[in-house]
Structure formats: structure tokens, C-alpha cells
């Protein structure tokens, strides 16, 4: 009953098998191996983007921060949601990699940027000419930190605003797979067809060991990315082991199957919680995470029985009145089982 | 009739005279001259701070950004008001000098941080341990960008919150003199006695040519400041010419007299505007700037007659209905004359 | 016959097995798992350093650059050999992570810093006070980029110079294991007993998939390291997979056995080459790499037969006179076999 | 008898007069005044460069570091002489402003880069592709730190090498005026006609109070420069006072007259020293500085009589054998008088 995060799960057996299969003899290092080449080819196919350049790194923070660094100058503002991972969970990695960009925070329900709020934020920034930070880029997280999903049309609406101000668009897709299967569209529709220039395409949270692909739809930005990746210490020497994970992940739609499973588990969990008297959702359940409030007594029982998850926000306390509602973030992954969910729900009730 | 900023005025004759007087023969460079030494001594006296270290730079942005860089690590948040100069008017200089700190924005009326909002912002930051930016420092602007003044007790209240979280406190005193004479307290009461660790003590906007003193009350931070100043290109070789300005500024209370004059001019302007039918203050007039709304027709007449000032916010338009109220920022300086104000008011009416 | 680098080899089967074994169920992320804790405990034992703090990252560049960033300020010089990896092979990662430190280059045979040259370089730096970069830290690479090994006494001699100038000492131990078995001393003797403050302890080149341990002997520097690692995007969420590699590496002296093997293969290769008429070593063979010059004709035969390795320096050409000597870098690893070496030598002859 | 530096002198009376003349009433701030505009126009004329963009800053370090930051990426090497000011005297400002460029040091007599050495350094850099820092830019100091002067043809020879590698060229002209009058060529011949892209055109050391003009011959780089200047805290609000200095400096060839005088004083000093038994030049005297060795006894007499200058290198001692030769750096300026030189020489003898 571990719902603390999708990164508390391990790697899918196919991913582990691919690592073993890749472990044969010598291979050129630093990404010059055939496996790495094959991954780029496969991602180009999946995204219908024959010109795209694909780079693998091991963490989502690296993928995001490096992407920002190639998309904006140090004096460019990064427009993102107030609860974006790049704002709240990366210890300032974007500021470090960009050499001091400012993140300008945009509001919106369920950690989705409201288009009106985005436009206002962009319009407000840089009006003072040289005295202000300039307009730099837009970063969209899909699925969001609140478990919500932007439909392609919603992404396109934000991108269009960005385009009007000549700003590039990044998508933090640490949970891209979950968003995609929820939205029921193609990878191309969710990204470059909707105006996305660079995608952080996550593998780690959805069954890989540690790999994210940065997909750069405009190849002109690629060489700079390569230099920044190396300079950031994110170029693996035994690169085949990043590639092997991604290869397995993309074979036979494994990535989609795992995300579908995780989303289904979240839907099941969400339904179960909503059936509990007094419980209610804090955010709609659209991807693989459930944000719900239910009585403190239920939390105590569940955690006492060994369930792991975070109260949300963090600074709530399990001490006190049993009937008070406390919110929880409950994340499902490829490894979550229906049995875990049933057990968890039984403790809540 | 130029109310665009206090930096559109020139330098006071005493300051110019001091430059001439300092221009005699050879002197050691880089601040090793006697004039520079004398300035430190004088500022220590004025601030009753015999241990303080004093460094001169030529711009307010340099003073602020260097101060931030010695007070926080790159991963430390800088808590400041949403409209602080370091947030809105320095093109990201604090982010650049700190190597990527995040400015966390605090609300409050008249560009003064609300203590409750500050405490909430600090408490919210860094709760996630290693994943978030950490709590770094607090920066207070006095007088504020909206022309308001913190009393010493108000500064102390913010500092006490900072202290509770072990954070150092910076004061952006680009208009320190105006704040001080408005508050009617001593320099020590407004700064270290109220918990301020480092002060950007402005000269430029109040009658100097281009000089700001960074007053570091804790000498342990001084050597790092010196290195950062040099590395930032802000150490003058012919340093005597910074020192001479500051020396004249501090002689015979010139700095206080000029600030008193500027504040009086603002008070006169403020009264005059309030007497105009339909006009009203947007912020209280406490220092040397007036923020007031009055009919578009009056703006047209004044600007047509040669008055310079900014509509506030910038993106208002003089086109359209004459009766609609538009707000203005009108800044007085040591060089503003009663005659200018009378002429301006006559055009408004 | 691949001698291009020790990173063209794969991972040792024990390492792969450990990854599989670690892939069971949920574990806390970001290093809070028991495996990660066990690795720290084991490294403390091996290094006889019960207070040491151990942090895992996936690349040697990350280990080195992060280590430099905690050991020196941006204005501090990093003293290292002219051919150090941090100078020549990391695309400026140390400059990036330190926010602009200057690498001051020290000469010495076989990529080992000459103590006299080091002392001269340190003494020369920072004499001009505020105008120059300051003395920051010393970084020693062991084994060196030229395949040579510092004995503990040699490390201690350099550290003593550093200590005299109050400078901390980093050891780039990407090939620490190879150096250690060559020197025949204990890990403690090679590091903290010889004055090393922080060690980049390499796993990747010696049989792991991608893991390096940063061993910080002074725990006061640990928290800053943690923040910098996170901010650099180098904190793995599924951290168990870094820990598992290192755990296997340290079990039953696997790390020492693999390094011993690699060094033996290099010795065999070195002997074989020296027996070829006209061939001679460019650097002594002390660890797992051979630097030797032999006739262009021999290079052509070997490379024609499928041998992979780098001419050294890079810009030599295989075109031209068969008898001219060209130097090569030939690196052996845990995976190099005696048969490969025999085959290679037969092609050379 | 102060030969410590050309920055120990004050400002020329014409410069001071211009400051006074500029101090009349209100003027737009931040460089939007007519004086600033006039300076750009005048510099365009002087340099026969109608498209050039001209930016004023107050220190040479700012001019150089900002210029580097617009000419190279963080991963680009800056090729400069081992004794360049940007390498030895700016506390790492170029590394700070570029976010971590590496200065690659080139040898050559009299602090002039040897073209062969420059070409070798460039060719050597970046051969390893992504693993190394890339080739970034070339920076030429004229006059050099050793008082030597590059003729236009020598500048062109270095620029041509740079051009072959597609690298832009910066000239650190803190003593540009001295170099120009020594070379007897036009400003255009010394700069853009010889391949220079950006010039730091010094005023401070040659009679100004504190002003340097950055002349950007390719206007495409201008907007980035403006943003970096603001972000570095180097945009003056009362900008007229930078402009006024430069205006006076460029009026009636004052800049050339002052440099001619300084050079003549150095020539006189150089001749006088060479006439002393046992004295000899360390570098040829081509601009306004004399580098000469003469007996310790003569140093003692001169310094005892109140002469100020630096022993070169710094760590020589006046203690010991009277007959041992110690070298000195003796810098003349616009303010040096023939009488000072005669007095100094009389003490030496």
C-alpha cells in the first residue's frame, strides 16, 4: 500500500531484461552506440517527427532544467504554473541551468495554467524594456502536479499565446504517458502539433529505472543541448544502459500499457474513496494520482496499517479531531495492484 | 516640470564641488585613498556602528545584487515584496549575482510587506527539504516603490520574523534618506537596531552623481563582498571620485536636507492634487513620490504643457474619454522647486 | 580488441544481478532506502572513516564538478594538472558548477602534478589581493590521465602544500581502484590519511553501469553537497538502482578484483608492445592504460583487423610513411581478455 | 613621483568642466539623454563606423567582462595572453559574466600573443567534440600589460587566425589611446579594419574620472549587451555624467593629446633609466609604461625619496644586496610631468 509516489516503484521486468540484453561486449560510449541511435529513430516514429533530436538523461530535473536552458536566455522569464515541478520541486535547478532566469508564476485550477492568467503574466512582463526581465518561454506540465490533464486543444491554446509573444514552449512530461492515454490522442497531437518545441518525455515514473528523453522538435537547438548536457554532467559514458531502458519502454507499447494501468488504478482508488462517507476529491482524477480529503480517523487507520502517502499540504497533522478532513496525495504506478487498493480502501472504511 | 524620476535630476552643487576638490594630484587607487577611508569613518559615526564595513558602488542595482549575493546561497529564496525594485526593475540582477536564487514574492499594501504574508511565505518555503529552494534572506525596501515608509518598529517586526527562521535582512535604501526623514528616527534605529544586516544606502537619487554605500553591519561578510564587487566589475580604480560624492553628501547633513526638501515637495504636490475635483491618491504620500489618479483630460493638459511623468501602470493610454481617471507616478527630488509644482498643478486644473 | 576506453565495456554480471535483486516492490525514493544506507556504511568501513558522508551520482563529471563546487568559492582557483579530466574532458563542468572558478594548470610528467610546480602555481595565485582570483583548492587525479599512479606519499606531499595554503584537496578517482591496487595501500592511506578531503570514487569505468560515490570525509560539507546535487539534477528518484550497483561493486572485493585484472591486462599489453621492434612507452604503465608509440604500419594492420583505440594526440594521421612512430592510448578494463591482447599483439607484429 | 599606475592620477580639467556643464536641470535617465546620443555619434565618426553601437560603463573590468559575455557562450574558450588583464587582474570577472568560460592562455613576448602560439591553442581546443570546451573568442590587449603595442597588421594577423576558426575578436583597449598614438594609425585601422568585433575603449586611465566605451561594430550584438549591462548593474541612471566625460575626452582630440603626452613621458623615463649604469629594459617602451631592471640600491633611494611604483613581479624584496637588479613597472599618465621624471632619475643615479 505505497502511494507515496510513482517513483517508489521499481522497474518493469521488460526494462530489466533489456538492460541485461544490452550488456554484451564492448560498445561505443557517450551515445554513439546503435541502441541509442535506435531509440532516436523509434521516438521520431512515435512522434511523427523525422527531424526531431532525442537526448537521454537519467532524471526529470535534468531533462527540465536543460530544456529551459536551451529555450531561454538568462534574462528571460519562464512562465509556468505556481505548482509546477520546476518551481516547487527542483531546488532551483532551472535557475541554476539558465544562469538565473526568473520563474513567473501563473495561476489556474488543478495546477493547469489558466490561459487568461498566462496571457496577463506574459503581457505584464518586460513592459519596462531593459529594466525588467524579458519574456522567455512557457513551460507546461502534463499531467500536472495535481493529477490533471491538459487536452491537446488546451495545450494549443497556451502555445498560441506563447507564439503571439514569440516564445517557445516546453512540456514537462514526467508523466507524459499518463496524460497521453488519458487524453486519448497521439503523441504528435499532444506536442508539436499543439505547439510544443521541446518535450521532457518521462520514463522513470512509469516503469523505467532512470531515464528521460528530451525530444527537441527543432533540430537547430540540438547542439547547444548536447553541450549543456555534457557540461551539466548528464552525458552517460555507458549510454547503452539509458538507451536499453527506453528501447524496452517503447517496445510493444509498453509505455502506454503501463500508463493505462496506472491511470486505471487511480480511477479505481478515486471511486473507492469517493464512496466513503465524508470523503471528497480535491482535484479531479484524470491521470495516475488521486487528491482527496477524508477524515483524519481514516488516515490514522490507513497509515497505522502500513499505507504510505503524503498529506497534502505537508504541514497537516495526524494529531487531533478524528472527524476533521485532511487531504492526501495518492499516486498509483505501473506496479500498483488492485489488491493494494482494495486493502487500502478497507482500512479507510 | 519633470517628475519622471528622482534620477532625472542632476547632482547637487556641493557634490560637484567635492569632485573638483578631490581632483588634486595622485591618490592610491581602488579605495586605498584617505577620502574613502574618511567616508567609512563618517558612516560608522552616523550609524553608530563602529564595526561596520562600508563599500561604495555606482548604482543601486549593483548595491542590491551584491548585497543579496553575500547574504544568501544560490539555493536560498529571497523574500521581498512583489513590487520590490530587485524583483521588477533590475532585469534579474539578483538572480545573476546570486547564481540563481529565487525571489519569493510577498504581498502587502503600498509595496510594504505584510508581516503575516511574509511569515507565511517563509514557512511555506523549504518544507520539502532537499527538493525545494531553501529559506535564504529577507529584503525590505524603504522607502517603498509605492512611496510608502516603514517605521522602525515595522522593520523590526519583519526582522524578527526573519530572525526566527535564522535569515539575514537586507534593506534596499535607494531612498533611505527620504524614508529616514519621514520616519523621524536615527539611522541606527532604522537599520541595525531594527535587525538589518546589510543596507544599500542610496546617494544617487538624492543629489549625488552616481554613488551608493553598502553598509555591512557584520564585518565577517566584508571580504566576500569585496571579492564579489571586484568580480562584478564594480570596484572603481579612481575610487576617490565615489568617495568625494559621498563625503559631500554626508557633510553638514546635506543628505537629510535634500531628502527633507524632496519629501516636502511631494507633500505639496500631493495636497495640490487632492484638491482637484475627482483626483485621489493611489498610495499615501509618505516620502518623495506621489501616486495619484486624476482625469485623463488633466493628464493631457499637463503633458501637453511639457510635464514629464509616468502613467502607472505603464500600459494606460492617453487616448479616449477625458473623464476617465488614470493614475500617475510623480517623483520629486532635491531639485524640484515649488514653482514647478505650482505650474504643474495649474495645468491640471 | 576494443581499447578505446574502459567505458566501452559493459557491467559486471554481479552488478547486473544486484540490480535485479534490488527490483523488488516499493522502496523510499531519493536515497532514503536501506540499500543506500548500507552503501554508506560499507564505504565508511572500507575507508575507516566512520564520519564520512557518501553520495551517489551517475557520472564522473557530476562527481567531480559537484565536489569542486563544495570545495571552492567562485573566485577560488582550482589547481590541477594540465591534462586533468576536469580541465580537458568535462566541457567546462567545473566552471559551470562553481559559477566560474578558474582552473590553474600545473605541469608534471605523466599527468602527475610536480610538487614544486604546484607550490609555485599556488604561491603565484592571489598575490595581488582583491584583483586576482584567490587560492581555492587542489584536485589530484589518481590514476592519472596518462595511466600513472600517485603513491600515498606523493598524494601526501601535494596535500601538505595545499594545507600550508589552507586549501582543501579533492581526488578525482574515476580510476581510484586501479590506482589503489597498483599502489598496494589501503583506501584510507590513499585518501584522508594523505590529506584528501573529498574523493570521487569511481565505479563506472571498473565494472558498474553508471555510478560514482562522492566520499566527503568532513561531514560539515555534506548538506551543501546534497543541495547542489539536487539542484544539478543528479539526485536519482529510484536511488536504489545506484546503490545496488555500488553494493555489488563493494561485495567480496569485486572492485579490487576487477581493477587488479584490468591492471594485469595493461601490464601484459605493455610488455607485448615493448617487445615490438621500434615500439616504446610514452608513459610508464602503472594502472590500466598503456601509452605507447609504434610504427604507423603496425597501427594500420591493427585497426584494419578491427582494433579500436585512440591515436594520442588525436590529430595524428594514419596516412603516410609506414615507419613513422605514432602514439596510442590503449585502455584495458575488467572485461579485457588475454586473448584479445594476444590477438592485438599478433596484428602489430 | 607616482608611477604606480595611470589610475592614480585624477581627471583632466576639461573632463571636470564637462561634468559641471552637464549638470543643468533634468535629463532623461539611463542613456536616453542627448549627451549620450552625441557620444555615440562622435565615436561612430572617429571609428568610421556608422553602424556601431556604443555603450558606456564606468570600469574596464565591466567593459571587458560584458564584451566577453556577448562574444562567447559559457562553453566557449577565450583565447588571450597569459598576462592579459582579463586573466590576471579581474578576479575572474570574465568567468562570472560568461557563466564559466575557460580562459586558454597563449604565450608571446611582451604580453603580445604569438600568432603561432594562438593558432596552436585554438587548434588544440575543442578537438574532442562534446567533451571539451569549444572555441569561443579571441581577446587582444592593446597596449599590452607589458607596455607593448600591436601594430594594425599584427592585430589583423591574429584576427585572421580567429576568422579562420569563425571566432569573434575582442580588443581590451583600456590603454587604446596609448596604443593608437604609438602605432600612428587610425582608430578604424586598429579595430574593425583589422578584424576587431568589439572594443573596450578606455577613458579612465587616460584622463577621465571613470568611463569606458564599449564599441560594438556589429549591431546585431547590441541588444544582448544592453540586457547584460543592466543585469550586471552597470547601467547608470544619471547616465549624462558618463557621457559628459567621454564627450570632453573626444573633443579637440583631447584623448590623443593626453595619450601622446603619457607616451612621451614614458619615453623620456625609459631613456633616462637606460642611461643608468647597469640598468636595462625588461620590455621595450612603446606606450606609457616602462618595465626596467636596475640595482636594488637605486630602488631604495628612489622609494626613500617618495617615489611610488611596483616591483615586478610583486614578490621581490628591497632587503639585501644593493647591487642586485630588481625590475620595476613605472607607469606614466596624462598627469605625469617632466619634472617628476627628472627628480626620479636624479634619485636613481
Automatic annotation (TrEMBL), chains A, B, C, D:
It holds the Pfam family Beta_elim_lyase. InterPro entries: ArAA_b-elim_lyase/Thr_aldolase, Low_specificity_L-TA_bact, PyrdxlP-dep_Trfase, PyrdxlP-dep_Trfase_major, PyrdxlP-dep_Trfase_small. Its cofactor is pyridoxal 5'-phosphate. It comes from the Bacteria. SUPFAM superfamilies: PLP-dependent transferases. Keywords: Lyase, Pyridoxal phosphate. Its EC number is 4.1.2.48. It catalyses: L-allo-threonine = acetaldehyde + glycine; L-threonine = acetaldehyde + glycine. Residues 3-291 form the Aromatic amino acid beta-eliminating lyase/threonine aldolase domain. The keyword Lyase applies. Catalyzes the cleavage of L-allo-threonine and L-threonine to glycine and acetaldehyde. Homotetramer. Belongs to the threonine aldolase family. This is L-threonine aldolase.
